[in-house]
Amino acid sequence: MGPGPRRAPRAPRPMLCALALMVAAGGRVASAFNLDTRFLVVKEAENPGSLFGYSVALHRQTERQQRYLLLAGAPRELAVPDGYTNRTGAVYLCPLTASKDDCERMDITEKSDPDHHIIEDMWLGVTVASQGPAGRVLETAT
Predict the structure, then answer these.
(1) Does Signal count among this protein's keywords (predicted)?
(2) Number of structural domains, the chain?
(3) What is the pLDDT of residues 48-60, one digit of tens each?
């Protein structure tokens, strides 16, 4: 007797399970959004190497003044001149206006001893988030 009919090679079971998990997870994680092309809001930084806009969040300010702000992280921004550091990163508050250069750097003061805390290249602004209307703002460094 000769050899029987040849079967097609089967994929290993772990590979099929991994593929099924990737497909299932991809359906839940995926999201999309539309950019408004008619009413653009473009903001620019003075320092092109700052990675301005690396992270962005929309925040609603309710104290002192009612307004919406874009929070823009610039993790490679130059430090405020203090004699201790050169590059710390920064977070900017940008009003929703047509002006490209009206962002203000958030005043974040570190009152610690620079000899004990590494703040040079700390990438402040790598993540920014808003807690919502009248909430707090979170900015992180690595």
Answers:
(1) yes
(2) 1
(3) 899 999 999 999 8
